[in-house]
Design a protein that fits this description.
By secondary structure, the chain is an all-alpha fold. It is about 65% helix and about 5% strand.
Amino acid sequence: MASRLPFLRLLTYFGSTHHDDEEEEQAKMTVEPPSTLERVISPSKPKFPKFRKVNLPFFKKNLQVKDTGNQTSEIPLTFKQNLKEQHFAVAGKQLINREERLFSVKQDGVGSSKSLVEEEEDYEESLRKDFEELLEEVWLTVENSFEVQTENEKEALKQAVLVIQQEEEQDRRWEGVAEKECPPWRPRCCRQTHDSLLQNMVQRRMEEAKLDSNTDIKSSVQKEITGKGKQLKQDLLHIAEHVRSCYPGENVCQLYAKLYHQEFCAKLREITEYGLSDADCSHVLQWVNIHYPSILRRKELNGVIEYEQLEALLPSNTLEPLEEQCLTQIENEVQTWCLNILKEEKAEPELRDGCYFSPLAIDAIECFHGAIKLAQEMLGSCSKPQRITHQIKEFLNSYQDYLKSMTESYQGNTDALVKANLLCIRQLREYITTNQELFPAHLKSDCMSLLVSIKELCHGYLTKSVHKDLKGTYAKLGTSEWLKHSEHVCGELLEGVDTHIQKLTDLDKTCLQDLLSHLHKEVLAEYVRTLMKKKIKLGKANIQQAAEALRDNNQRIHTLFIEAGSRMDDLKDILESLADLLTLKELHTIELELANLSKSYPDFCEAHVCAWLHHRPTLSTAELRMIKETFSELREPNTPVETDHQEQDPLYSSRDFFSKVFVRCTAQQSLGHMLSCI
């Protein structure tokens, strides 16, 4: 009796779960319930107790309805039926149950009968084939992932994925069991097979990607990269839209992104291995830093692909030479553009809204800014392309040479060209100040200094004729005629200035303000220089008269320029202070006034003090020496002072006024001359 029990258990097991071809035959057999027999031969715990109770809750029950007259009963679908209906997860569960029952029986033993052993082996082989048939359908379904669109296709793929997850779980449950007691197909490693299959699929699709059909792209390298990039984009978007939901509890998009990333990396590294033309080099960098990141950061892929976790497309030892080649190419192009811009500037300037205009600055700014922004995008960095900004300094040097040559070799349209270029200078300056992040500090300082020099060159050209015409009027300042008829001399001066101002109406408004501010400072500087140059002594009778003339002239000159558009409002205090120095009687008040002048105008030096106080014959030698010593002590710490005005536009600053008042003699010579005259 005992020798028949294992066979009865096998019959019971396979009578209810064997494959479809034998199910009908087994149903005709009548077998006693095995529970009593099992208790007879298995009074102790089985060798593989963990499979006594199988609880895999994610399998759903598939039933078919059988009508038996007045009573309806539900009959579970067979393995073959589930497979045909693509209920892969349920079919897989059926096979797992058969696997667990079979190997539970094997652990208890089937005796030494050769026929029973052969019978068991037949059942094991049948189970193995069913597993193979199931997995074949699973892999075909996974391989069809890029054609998945309908709900039925998505459900089939989801069922295939559930089988893979079930098989992985079953592999883990067999861990730790002796090899002889495990099914020969365990571990099955379906996840590894799945990932390898996806890798082969991605590799094949990237290899078969069509060259880009854009006729504007001539290079075969660019066509290949673009074609593979488009294939990558199309496939990842398909995975995110149709396949992602078929992988419950997994982020399959990241897996696909990693596989496509590996293929794209390999292709780029192959392409860059033997060197590239400038155009192909730029194309590669555009894909590395612009196109490729933009694909993986699309809103459809947001949250499902973590781009930052992927390795760099190109290693640094490959990327850096490409970046250097790209920067060199852009620099050369910028140089060529700049030369062309200066050549085209020799044409006649046009009038826009009654003002002379040149496109030079706009063209140059578009050239520089476009090149810098392109380099930033292509290199994926804001710091590396800063070297391109050095081309702006080179351009400004060439620009200065061009304007200097033009103003020295006077031609009929020189005035118009200078006026047009004043607006260009201002536009270039505004570009640098509003894009400071593009320029290293030292380069910005150099460029701003160059622009100041260029502007002064143009201003000097336009004001040269003004000073030439006013030369005779300047000569009358500080003379007896000026003392007697200061209003007339000043009126003559202002009339000459106003005549020239009326000729500047074809200047841009802001440029006119700049030029008038410059002219305002120059006229007043020449006025003061002429007075300091005169070695006249003012007596007690006419010293007050001279001070009043200074104050009156100061008000009229200041009013004319400010109303015309000058922004040098700070200049109104200079002649007023010099007038006070003529009339102040107390020594300490003179010293205080000189100290204030030195503080407001750091370029006000001992030479200016000596030249101006020469007009004060009432000061003794000791007083003059004391004034000089006090001034030197008070002026010294003020020399570097610019802290409160560092951000002020130097064009509108009056602090350098006395640097334009040239006094030829040294401080010692002026003081010695002054003392000898007393």
